[in-house]
């Protein structure tokens, strides 16, 4: 598949679309000008004009519109655009497999779980009216419990957009212990932002008072950061010329809003990325490989949907790796609940089925495939990732 060819074809269609749009606007402007001119004439003679005079003006307008020939002018560019779109569609069908249903695997999804995911998606995106409508139609009333926390989150984020830190600071104060357990310094970062604002307004005493009031709970873990902020007191009103100008970065508000969203979702036990978006993005990456696999298996008259594991690797990138995966170095099978990874006394790891084969179903000791140490099934321990 040559992506450059597809891009060139797309660019040609876009060019024809712009020409067609430009010509359409030009013709519309011509028609509008003629109509406005004749309307002006009718208004100027409105009181003294006879019906024949008005009829004459309308006939004159009709003649001018026929001379413009709007449909004839638009026919050419529109025809070229339609031809370009037709060719581009055929190129896409030739380059890509339009029948993605071949890569679909029959899975019996739990409808209740799917409805929860969809409702959570709407609420997490701030589409509360849409989420309420979906819950009412799907009769999943218990899912409304997800709405209240996300309402609070968007209230805080909207306040931050208006550079109001009050709701954000209240939330971080209430959840201080949980944030510390997660290793987050979000509360200190919010206080730092407020402290810098006070300094920029030129009030050293007020900034020092603020620091004494709010920085002390963080002194044991973030003393270096607090020391930098105290040094900023020497540059009151001119922090942009100081070694600490980084605290004035315009990205501070956006970065903190994103971090707050991540921590908020984390405390809710929800992913910061909405599940539907992740599923679609992962599907887009994996779809070409699955379609190719389906075509190859179909040509060999084999059914791939009955397989427990794919016969080819499907690398979706680190952003879609949510848990550890172990592949047995002997059998090349991926670990599962029935075939978990087992730690041998020497420190090497194999899957359970490989160990059972080496030990003749546990009836004798065996030598590790990677070192000279002996082991028995009783000495192997299951690993949990």
Write a structural description.
Residues 149-206 form the CTLH domain. It holds the Pfam family zf-RING_UBOX. The chain is mostly helical. The protein has 3 domains: 3-94; 115-268, no CATH class; 323-385, Herpes Virus-1, CATH 3.30.40. It has helices spanning 3-44, 51-68, 70-95, 111-124, 128-138, 147-161, 166-174, 176-181, 186-200, 204-214, 223-231, 252-268, 275-299, 352-358; strands at residues 341-343, 349-351, 366-367, 374-375, 381-382. The protein has a 3-stranded antiparallel beta sheet. Helix 1 runs antiparallel to helix 3, helix 4 (111-124) packs antiparallel against helix 5 (128-138) and helix 6 (147-161) runs antiparallel to helix 12 (252-268). It is flat. The chain starts with a helix and ends with a strand.
Q: How many structural domains in the coordinates?
A: 3
Terminal-residue CA separation: 39 Å
The helix-strand sequence is: HHHHHHHHHHHHHEEHEEE
Record field, number of beta strands: 5
Overall shape: it is: flat
GO molecular function: ubiquitin protein ligase activity; zinc ion binding
GO cellular component, one term: nucleus
GO biological process, one term: proteasome-mediated ubiquitin-dependent protein catabolic process
Main location: cytoplasm
Could you write a compact summary of the structure shown?
The protein is mainly alpha-helical. 58% of the residues lie in helices and 3% in strands. It starts with a helix and ends with a strand.
How would you summarize the topology of this molecule?
Layout (H helix, E strand, L loop, with lengths): L2 H42 L6 H18 L1 H26 L15 H14 L3 H11 L8 H15 L4 H9 L1 H6 L4 H15 L3 H11 L8 H9 L20 H17 L6 H25 L41 E3 L5 E3 H7 L7 E2 L6 E2 L5 E2 L3
Antiparallel strand pairs: 1-2, 1-5, 3-4
Helix pairs in contact: 1-2, 1-3, 4-5, 6-7, 6-12, 7-9, 9-10, 9-12
């Amino acid at each position: 598949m040559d992506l450059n060819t597809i891009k060139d074809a797309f660019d040609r269609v876009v060019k024809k679309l712009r020409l067609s749009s430009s010509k359409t606007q030009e013709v519309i402007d011509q028609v509008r000008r003629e109509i406005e001119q004749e309307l002006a004439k009718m208004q100027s003679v409105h009181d003294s004009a006879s019906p024949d005079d008005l009829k004459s003006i309308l006939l004159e307008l009709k003649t001018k519109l026929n001379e413009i020939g709007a449909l004839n002018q638009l026919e050419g560019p529109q025809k070229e655009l339609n031809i370009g779109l037709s060719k581009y569609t055929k190129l896409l069908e030739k380059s890509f497999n339009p029948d993605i249903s071949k890569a679909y695997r029959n899975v019996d999804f739990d409808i209740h779980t799917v409805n929860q995911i969809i409702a959570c998606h709407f609420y997490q995106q701030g589409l509360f009216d849409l989420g309420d409508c979906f819950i009412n139609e799907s009769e999943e009333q218990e899912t409304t419990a997800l709405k209240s926390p996300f309402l609070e989150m968007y209230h805080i984020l909207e306040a931050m957009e208006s550079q109001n830190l009050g709701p954000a600071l209240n939330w971080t104060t209430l959840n201080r212990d949980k944030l510390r357990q997660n290793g987050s310094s979000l509360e200190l970062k919010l206080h730092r932002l407020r402290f810098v604002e006070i300094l920029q307004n030129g009030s050293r005493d007020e900034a020092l008072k603020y620091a004494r009031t709010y920085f002390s709970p963080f002194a044991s873990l973030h003393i270096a950061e607090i020391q930098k902020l105290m040094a900023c007191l020497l540059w009151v009103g001119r922090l942009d010329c100081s070694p600490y100008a980084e605290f004035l970065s315009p990205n501070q508000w956006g970065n903190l809003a994103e971090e707050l969203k991540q921590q908020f979702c984390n405390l809710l036990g929800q992913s910061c990325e909405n599940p539907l978006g992740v599923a679609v993005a992962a599907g887009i990456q994996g779809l070409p490989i699955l379609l190719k696999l389906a075509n190859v298996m179909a040509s060999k008259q084999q059914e791939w949907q009955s397989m427990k594991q794919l016969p080819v690797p499907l690398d979706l990138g680190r952003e879609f790796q949510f848990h550890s995966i172990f592949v047995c170095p002997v059998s090349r099978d991926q670990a599962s609940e029935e075939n978990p990874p087992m730690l041998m006394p020497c420190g090497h790891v194999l899957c359970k089925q490989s160990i059972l084969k080496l030990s003749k179903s546990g009836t004798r000791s065996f030598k590790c495939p990677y070192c000279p140490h002996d082991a028995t099934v009783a000495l192997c321990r299951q690993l949990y990732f």
